[in-house]
Amino acid sequence: MKKLEDILAWGGTKKDIAFLVISGLALLASIFNLLPLPFDAAWVAIVLCGVPIILEAIIGLITSFDIKADVLVSIALIASVIIGEDFAAGEVAFIMQLGGLLEELTVARARAGIERLVHLTPRTARVIRNGQENVIPAEEVAVDELLRVLPGETVPVDGVIISGQTSIDQAVMTGESLPVDKGVGDEVSSGTVNQFGAFEMRSTRVGEDSSIQRMIRLVQSADAGKAKIVGVADRWATWIVVIALTAAALTWLISGEIIRAVTILVVFCPCALVLATPTAIMAAIGNATHHGFLVREGDALERLASVTRFAFDKTGTLTFGTPHVTAVESARVEVSRGELYACAAGAELRSEHPLGKAIVRCYREETGQEPPPAEGFAILPGRGVRAVVGGRKIAAGNAQLLAGEGGGVPEACATAAQAYSAGGCSVIYVAIDGRCAGFIALSDTLRPDAEDTIRRVRASGVTPVLLTGDHESAAGAIAARLSIEEYHAGCLPEDKLRYIDASQGQGQPVCMIGDGVNDAPALKRAFVGVAMGGVGSDIAVDAADIALVNDEIREIPHLLRLSRRMMRTIRLNMTFSMALNFVAIVLAMTGVLNPVVGALVHNAGSVVVIINSALLLKWREKT
């Protein structure tokens, strides 16, 4: 039976369907003797459906001594022809190819959501060189080149907008249903679509490093054949071939009826057993893709089903990883909150520090205004910034800065700030004209679905754990809000590795969920690694087994339960196929089944297995 890649490459599905239709009509003609042919019309099915099976079996034996289902099917076909059961041989070939086509269609449907990414690769780019616009192949764009993207065009490479404003459809990368507004300084990803305005951008990641190419590499590495349990099924199939030949030979010797031996060969074919695992895995991968996951290896879902602990990174995973102004507290009666906020935002307007940029961003969002202009801006490394805003001298930074610029921090102000620090906030003190005027507290923003995600993970019988490089107060505050009982703060990459090694050494498989470069070793070492594909670093994504493309962590519990459902489906498929084979063999030995009926019974089992696996495509646990 042909591989999915072959079908996708040369359109083999249409050819297979045509052969099956012709073969089916020929079998009907054989039953009712409708065609005045000098031979049995069943031979049409034997040639169109049976010969490819025999050829593939011979090639497998010669090239790699691959004893699988095709070998047994080929022997059954040849034996049926030899004893004159042409119709049985044609029916066996027809039904085997029908089962193979159903498998291929199921797998194709499961992977369709991933395969579409390949066709979204941008072909051309508008590059501006020496003031002239040139259209060139997208793969020829270099880093730090100037590009223009018109409305309706696909962004060819990753980059940063340097002029213009627009809305970008990012559904292919993030799953967002609505376009996202973009302006100067915003990042855009290859494969996303420019909706409205034209803009110019500076390329940052091109070729194989671009976002869409990263996703394609993940697609190409998704392979259900790597699952360990598939190997077990294949080994069983090999032994079944040997047992089938032995049973057929003994039955022929004892009963003297070769038709019983041929029937045993027909019903003993382990197709249902071989189909049991890969169809379930690929259907589960298709389901996971629909929920925003790219599964790099089929056995990742198999391993996920047995984990007992979920280790979460904090920044960028349970939180957005971007600071947000939590409080603005004035320490002087004559300075209002709004005045303090405006002075700080003005002073930080030209700052490149993440906290300073966060103050400016939040001021704009909260007031809808631009910060007041500043003069005499200066960066004081390790302490903060200094500027003149509205004719007043402003200093914004840590307590050390105010000790030299603002006469120190009053005790009441320091006490109030300490309360925010204990809750995991970062504090920026602000001095106006040489005196402390108050402080601004910033904290990382918890994802709105983080609490529900942790609750559902715990309800699934898995223990959530927080592993973070943040200090104790920040880790404790997040853990308390999410009701995570076990957390470890101040973790360096080697600390996370030690925790994972210790847990797995005690028989507690760990699933690590993270996004940063510092998470990459833990993602690699964990029993299963899940990377935040949207905000995560390249290294983290490459190290993980699964990437969560849209960063919607609320889907994590679904992935866990899907993996368990997949394993139940595989076990059910295997149990059913083995039981059906056993019953059919007994009936064949006693002469109840003939080759024709045996082929129907056996291949009905394969169809049942495929349909049962296909149910995983749309499965979602009711809550």
Automatic annotation (TrEMBL):
> Start and end of every P-type ATPase A domain?
120-220
Show the catalytic activity: Cd(2+)(in) + ATP + H2O = Cd(2+)(out) + ADP + phosphate + H(+)
Which biological process terms from the Gene Ontology are attached to this UniProt entry?
Answer: copper ion transport
As for membrane topology, the entry says: Multi-pass membrane protein
SUPFAM superfamilies recorded for this chain?
Answer: Calcium ATPase, transduction domain A, Calcium ATPase, transmembrane domain M, HAD-like
Q: Which Pfam families match?
A: E1-E2_ATPase (PF00122), Hydrolase (PF00702)
Q: EC number(s) for this protein?
A: 7.2.2.21
TM ranges are 17-35, 41-62, 236-255, 261-286, 570-593, 599-617
Q: Which GO terms describe its cellular component?
A: plasma membrane
Is the keyword Zinc assigned to this protein? no
Statement: the UniProt record of this protein carries the keyword Ion transport: yes
Write out the entry's keywords from A to Z: ATP-binding, Cadmium, Cell membrane, Copper, Copper transport, Ion transport, Membrane, Metal-binding, Nucleotide-binding, Translocase, Transmembrane, Transmembrane helix, Transport
Provide any one GO MF term from the record. Answer: metal ion binding
Query: Where the protein is mainly located, per its record?
Result: membrane
Which enzyme class, named as a word?
Answer: translocase
List localization entries: Cell membrane
Similarity remark: Belongs to the cation transport ATPase (P-type) (TC 3.A.3) family. Type IB subfamily.
* Name of the protein this chain belongs to: Cd(2+)-exporting ATPase
